[in-house]
Each structure stands twice: as C-alpha cells, then as structure tokens.
Design a protein that fits this description.
629 residues, mainly alpha, 33 helices, 4% strand
Length: 629
C-alpha cells in the first residue's frame, strides 16, 4: 500500500461520500476520474495531499492516470521528492511518466539526474517522444545537448518545433552561435520562443547588432524579448540605446519589474536623474510591485545620479530589506564620501541580524578609502575573516591598496600587493600606479612598471598612467618614450567626456568642443566665468597640463575642459539657483576641482559632479570630498 507523503491527522477535509440518489446520477465523488479532475483545480499543496489521501483510502493508489497526475502536480508545487516516490513505485512506467519526471528535474536544474532517467528509459525499451526530448534539452549544458542532438535526429524529432527550439536554446546559451543560427535558419516556422532564444544567445555573447536585427524583424514581441534586448544594452554599456528602446516599448506594451530594474540601471550609468525620477513615478502610478529588487534598483539609480537623499528615502520605505538593499545603500554612501553614515548602516545590519556579505565589505572599505580612514579600514579588513568568516577576495585587496595608496602609504601598499594571498590583477596594479601619480612618486612608479613589464603583466593602463606621471613632473623625455611605447602597442588614451541632463535630454562635451548647437552661448558664458574667477584671485594650475607647451596654451587648455563646458551649458540652460549635475568619465583634475568650488560660491548654486571614482558635492566654495579624492 502506497503511503501519503505526510500523515493525515483527521478525516474532516476528505470530501463526504455521495448520497444514493446522487450516485445514481453521477460518478462516485471518490472515483479515480473525479479525483483526477479535482487535481486540475488544486491551488495548493494542502489540497493535493487531501486528494492523495482520499485516493489511498479508496484503493485508487495504483490507478495509472491518477498516479500520473499526482506525480506531475507534486513537482509543480515544488515537491520533487514526493513526485519521485510516486514514479519509483510505478510498475513499468510509460513514456508519459518518464517525460514528467525528466521535466520535473529540468525545472529544478537537476539536468544530470534527468539524463540518468533518460538512459534508464532507453534501457527499458520505452521510446521517447518529442516532449521527452524538449524537456531533456531544457536548460541542459552544451556538451549534453550535443550528445542528445543525434538522438533527436535518429528519432525524427529534430524538425519538431519544440525540439528544434530547445536545440537552438542549448546551442545559443552554450555560446555556439554558428550551430544555433544554422538550426534557427532551417526552421520552417519560427516561434516567439525560438526567436527569443536566438536573441538571448546573441546578447549573452555581446553581439547586440545581430540581436537587434532579429528583434526588429519579430512579428510579435512579449515582455521577455523586450527585456532581453534592453538588458543587453545595459549590460554592455549602451544605456542610451536601452532608454530609447524602453520608450519604444511603452508605446507597445506595459513594462514589468524586470524592465524597470534594467532601465533604472541605464539611468544610473548615464547619471540622468530626471529620467530616473520619471521611471520612479511610473512605478508608483502603474501598480508595479515595489519589491526588494525594484527598491534596490531605485537606490542604486538615485545614488549614481547624485540623489543621495532620495536613495535613503527609498531605502527607509522599503519593506523586508535584505542584505542586497543594505549593500546598495552602503555603496551609495561610499560613492558620496559619507563614511560615517556607511559605518552606521553597517552596524545597523548587525543589530538587525542581517549577515554581511563580501559585497558589504567592498562598500565599507571604499567608504574608508574615500575618507582616508586608514586605521578603520584596516580593522574592517581584518574582521572579515576573524569575525565574519569571509575570506578576502581580489576586490577586497584592491580596496585596501586604494585605501593605503590614496593616504600616501605607497611603500606599504606596494608591500601589501607583493604579499597578497592571491595574484594581483591589472586593476590592483593600476590602482597602485594611480596612487603614485597622485603623490608624484616617479621612482616607485618606474619600479612597478619594470616589475610588470618583466613579467608580461603590463597593459594599456600601465603606459598611460606612467605617461601622465611623467607629464605631471615635466619629464617630457619620459612622456615621449611612453607615447612611443603606446603607439607600438596600439594603446590610445580615453578622451575626457562630461555630460549633463537638461529637460530629459543628455548633452555631452569633450575638451574644446564646438559641435554643440549652443556653442556660441556656452563660450560666452565661459568668458564671463573667467572674469568671475580672476576677480576671486584664481590662478590656473598649469602644471597639471600634460603637454610640452607654453603657459598661455596651457591656460587655454584648462579653460575648455569638458566639465567646464558642461557647467557653462548648465548655467545658461537651467533656472538660477537650481542644482547642476555633471557626469565625467575620468577623474576630475585638481584645477577644475578648484574652479568648480569657486563657481558654486559665486553663483550660489550646488554643483554635483560624478567622476570615475566618486561624487563631489560643491556648495558655497567647498567640496564634500574635503579636497581628498
């Protein structure tokens, strides 16, 4: 006798026996057919257990159709263990039982176990059908897919739409786009699923152009394919394209939570606060569930767009905050140089018994680095393993190198790198070289570069950083040598670029830019700014210009840096007294930093600048970084 998965303590929930009159007119209420039909309407595991108990009590536990439906329903409610018990107690299971149990394992990502059932099925001379193959292929690895492909051909199922779609998915997920496309192109008709699988494969492998061609040619689209394409643009650093496609999606269908998370990330990448706020309003006005994923994405967006107070407001209103939400808020404080607030929030995690993760410590260590709190950072780093049982990773070592290097402990940082338990990566070496440049330590920088070149570890950033350091110390021979090496290795410096969002439009500038439609007005504003600066005793920091030119040329070069053009445009195109928010792809130079402080004082405007490393909030002649960045 088959026992129910859990004991039934009472008979009160078992349906009552039918009256004699109803039995005459209808099937018995406990007949296999009636119980099987009840399974189709079952809404939870408790009801399913009651039906199973009734089947056992009335001797129907070996009825094949009823057992099959019970097996399938158990797996749909996440009870694979109960489903497996029913399968193993089935004498000579047919193709439907095997297909059901294989599908149940595929859903739970237990693909190897599903393959074992397939081998068992074949050994027992049970011939699979097209649904068996498509279930088996669902989510399986490329190596297993390649093994199953010949089986599909031999059985004549390779042209079946479900099987062919599953094969396209296997090959595209595994990165074999050539094979995936060959199968895809030979499909007599392409389903929405097969098109989405092919697009997903292209996106996963960074081929956004081919993905977009297929996407644009789709006769119909669901939210999944829109999200794949938008998410691909976000992942590969094309946030403008992501937002453009999102606006197009709004004219066709409503976005879901996945869409919102992706486009908020795009807003964060661009630093476009106005667009981010509009999306937040859309979430509120369209009943999109404010779960922890959407809330965390909003925190991240606001913090990257300069709205730290808005980020904290979302955090405080978020229900059931998890460690990811805490990590996002800690990272936000770190990015804005608010070390004290980050440490308070970290302590709050402990009080609420939210266990920190490795990401939590990256945020705290970055906060310490941006504030120069070396002793606090050292204590946090040591506590990772001793108190929290977390082994430091390459990212944590990188944070420590940044903390020590920025504080001027260059030799200590260098020794730290050489004695790391893991091999330092190019990011760590670049961080150390950047600190050498910050403190003008040419000797140590040259020693590090020689160390890297001798071990074939040098990359493009190595030459650029040393070239910049030579330029900062007016070593033009060294600059020329580095530029020759850069040319030989095909290395190009990334040009500085600053952007500002005005009335939902992003305006980008490079140094000396004259392509903007309002260039005439921008340069007139720059002339006015220069007059203000001279009146306040400003003297250009010409020593930071990394070119062997005269003083006048250096001053002209500084005056048209990309962030100054963006600020000038902000002054002429926004309301007096309103804040100006700038995003720059490189570190703000010390001269522009000083100039922006003066402009904030003269204009009585708050100017927020996000550079490659952190945020700077300029207010009334001072900066939130305390001139430590």
């Amino acid at each position: 006798m088959l026992s129910p998965p859990i004991s039934i303590a009472t008979n009160r929930s078992i349906p009552p026996s039918p009256s004699p009159s109803s039995t005459a007119r209808h099937q018995p209420s406990h007949s296999p057919e009636t119980l099987a039909s009840l399974i189709a309407t079952t809404k939870n595991i408790r009801q399913l257990l009651q039906i199973h108990a009734a089947a056992i009590r009335h001797g129907h536990d070996n009825h094949l159709i009823l057992k099959f439906k019970l097996q399938r329903s158990y797996s749909s409610f996440g009870r694979l263990d109960s489903s497996l018990v029913l399968f193993e107690l089935t004498h000579n299971p047919d193709v439907f039982f095997y297909t059901s149990i294989i599908h149940a394992h595929a859903v739970d990502n237990l693909h190897k176990r599903g393959l074992q059932f397939y081998v068992q099925m074949i050994s027992q001379d049970v011939e699979p059908n097209e649904f068996t193959l498509s279930a088996l292929l669902k989510g399986c690895a490329l190596e297993h897919g390649k093994t199953l492909h010949p089986h599909a051909i031999k059985l004549g199922f390779d042209c079946n739409m479900h099987v062919r779609t599953a094969l396209v998915d296997v090959y595209s997920r595994g990165g074999d786009l050539v094979s995936a496309r060959q199968l895809f192109d030979k499909m007599p008709e392409r389903s929405l699923v097969s098109l989405t699988s092919m697009i997903t494969g292209y996106v996963k492998n960074g081929d956004l152009d081919n993905a977009r061609v297929l996407f644009d040619g789709m006769p119909e689209r669901d939210a999944v394919c829109w999200n794949v394409m938008i998410g691909g643009y976000v992942k590969y650093g094309k946030p403008t394209e992501a937002l453009t496609l999102f606006r197009k999606m709004l004219t066709k269908m409503n976005p879901n939570e996945v869409t919102i998370v992706a486009v908020l990330s795009a807003c964060g990448q661009l630093g476009v606060l106005e667009s981010g706020k509009w999306i937040h309003s859309y979430v509120k006005n369209n009943s999109i569930h404010m779960n922890v994923h959407v809330g965390t994405a909003l925190i991240d967006m606001y913090s990257k767009c300069g709205g730290l107070d808005d980020a904290r407001m979302v955090f405080d209103q978020l229900k059931n905050k998890d460690v990811i939400a805490y990590n996002s808020m800690i990272a936000a404080y770190a990015m804005h140089g608010c070390c004290r607030e980050a440490l308070i929030l970290f302590s709050d995690m402990g009080r609420r018994r939210t266990r920190p993760t490795d990401i939590s410590f990256i945020g705290i260590l970055n906060a310490c680095a941006h504030s120069g709190l070396v002793s606090v950072g050292k204590g946090v780093f040591l506590s990772m393993k001793t108190k929290h049982g977390i082994e430091p990773s390459i990212e944590h070592y990188g944070c420590m190198v940044n903390l020590l290097g920025r504080a001027g402990f260059l030799e200590t940082a260098y020794g730290f790198v050489k004695n790391m338990k893991v091999d330092p990566d190019p990011v760590i070496w670049g961080t150390l070289l950047d600190s050498c440049s910050l403190h003008g330590n040419v000797h140590l920088a040259e020693e590090i570069v020689k160390f890297l070149v001798d071990r074939n570890l040098a990359n493009s950033g190595t030459y650029i950083l040393l070239s910049n350091l030579y330029g900062a110390t007016s070593n033009w021979v060294g600059v020329a040598r580095m530029r020759t090496m850069m040319k030989t290795h095909g290395v190009q410096k990334e040009p500085g670029c600053s952007s500002i969002e005005v009335r939902n439009t992003v305006h980008e500038f490079v140094a000396g830019d004259v392509k903007h439609p309002n260039s005439k007005e921008i340069y007139m504003m720059l002339e006015e700014i220069n007059g203000w600066l001279k009146g306040h005793g400003y003297r250009p920091r010409t020593d930071i210009v990394l070119h062997d030119v005269g003083k006048t040329e250096r001053e002209r070069s500084l005056a048209v840096h990309s962030e100054r053009l963006a600020i000038a445009f902000g002054l002429i195109s926004t309301e007096p007294g309103s804040s100006i928010k700038i995003v720059k792809n490189l570190r703000v130079c010390s001269d522009c930093h000083e100039v922006t402080k003066l402009i904030s004082k003269i204009t009585r405007r708050k100017i927020v600048v996000r550079d490659r490393n952190r945020f700077h909030h300029f207010t009334d002649g001072s900066c939130s970084c305390g001139d430590y960045w």
